[in-house]
Amino acid sequence: MAKRIDISGLTAYYGTHKAIEDISMTVEPRSVTAFIGPSGCGKSTFLRTLNRMHEVTVGGRVEGKVMLDDENLYGSGVDPVSVRRTVGMVFQRPNPFPTMSIFENVAAGLKLNGSYKKSELGHVVEKSLKGANLWNEVKDRLNKPGAGLSGGQQQRLCIARAIAVEPDVLLMDEPCSALDPISTLAIEDLIGELKERFTIVIVTHNMQQAARVSDRTAFFNLAGVGQPGKLIEIDETERIFSNPSVQATEDYISGRFG
Ligand SMILES: Nc1ncnc2c1ncn2[C@@H]1O[C@H](COP(=O)(O)OP(=O)(O)OP(=O)(O)O)[C@@H](O)[C@H]1O
Ligand SMILES: [Mg+2]
């Protein structure tokens, strides 16, 4: 079930380095929110704080609050592993498990959770591959290695793996940056379909992509090298790209810096 994310006063560190500072925003359910901003402004860091992956990095530390509907993901007693099941992630480079078949790749998350019945596995794998618009291309080779697919297919395989466990939120960090234009459009179409069921956040350097796929866009920036990244503004995508409130946003989207 898609859930709303409500972030308040979020600051994240790598050791003593403050990477992002005091970010507050709401991410609406059943919609796509795009994160844009220059390299190093903390988009990936921020994304990883939303499923408690930031703290996996040595020295990674977070202050602030991330509410998923009415649960604080940083509340005491919250299990980070279950958070990562609820808030799934798709990475920049497709990362199917190299030694596993297509079928096993999709089933992997379910098996880790132990939250499946063996008799249902085939059904869930098929449903997830269909959900990722990959089924027709792989249904006759489910036992072949996932690594044998094209880059675009591998990325859809990773999306199938992520949605198989029925998360509430899907985080995507530049999911198309390693893909050709056709595969990119396939993923963008897919994102448009998935937002009916999930809350989606996508980091992208591609302004056209942000404009095409997202409902809301958040612009992040940093004052200088070594300074923490900050949220500059978040608004309807149409508004950010036509009439942003802040000059720096306009400069960025029109390619004047970054
Ligand atoms: N593992 C790490 N250890 C230490 N510092 C890190 C680490 N990862 C990122 N940083 C620092 O945190 C800041 C934000 O980096 P981050 O990768 O979140 O930016 P980004 O906006 O995703 O950039 P890009 O657009 O290039 O992907 C940068 O100053 C970066 O050097
Ligand atoms: Mg990044």
Automatic annotation (TrEMBL):
The keyword DNA-binding does not apply. Residues 5-247 form the ABC transporter domain. GO terms for molecular function: ATP binding; ATP hydrolysis activity; phosphate transmembrane transporter activity. GO terms for cellular component: membrane. It comes from the Bacteria. Keywords: ATP-binding, Nucleotide-binding, Translocase, Transport. SUPFAM superfamilies: P-loop containing nucleoside triphosphate hydrolases (SSF52540). It comes from Streptomyces iranensis. This is Phosphate ABC transporter, ATPase subunit. PANTHER family: ABC TRANSPORTER I FAMILY MEMBER 17. One of its GO terms (biological process) is phosphate ion transmembrane transport. Pfam families: ABC_tran.
